[in-house]
Design brief:
Blueprint (H helix, E strand, L loop, with lengths): L1 E5 L2 E4 L4 E8 L8 E6 L6 E6 L6 E3 L7 E6 L4 E6 L8 E9 L3 E4 L3 E6 L1
Parallel strand pairs: 2-11
Antiparallel strand pairs: 1-3, 3-8, 4-5, 4-9, 5-6, 7-8, 9-10, 9-11
């Protein structure tokens, strides 16, 4: 299993970024996919999750209305469109796939820095 994130960077308050996660090594269409983030001194938190078909999504309250998670099953990609970014969104963003059967994999993460 391999998850490779990209698209991070530095933006100003109110800016936008689009993160991508390229998945390989497993049956992509069988699993929900999630984005997490981790900031120094804080616990890792779930940002958003998308269902196998992409028809159902869930978001952390802190990003609702600003972030959009999506997936492309043909290309085995997961995306996180981040709009109206705030300094508190600064974190390492990680792509994750997991199931109830001891199947839990992470990407290496991509850094997002939002300046006030």
């Amino acid at each position: 299993v391999q998850l490779v994130e990209s698209g991070g960077g530095s933006v100003m308050f109110g800016g936008s970024l689009r993160l991508s996660c390229a998945a390989s090594g497993f049956n992509f269409t069988r699993y929900d996919m999630s984005w997490y983030r981790q900031s120094p001194g804080k616990e890792r938190e779930t940002v958003a999750t998308v269902s196998v078909t992409g028809s159902s999504t869930t978001y952390a309250d802190s990003v609702k209305g600003r972030f959009i998670i999506s997936r492309d099953n043909a290309w085995k990609m997961v995306y996180l469109q981040m709009n109206n970014l705030k300094p508190e969104d600064t974190a390492v963003y990680l792509c994750n796939v997991r199931s109830a059967h001891n199947f839990n994999y992470w990407g290496q993460g991509t850094h997002v820095t939002v300046s006030a």
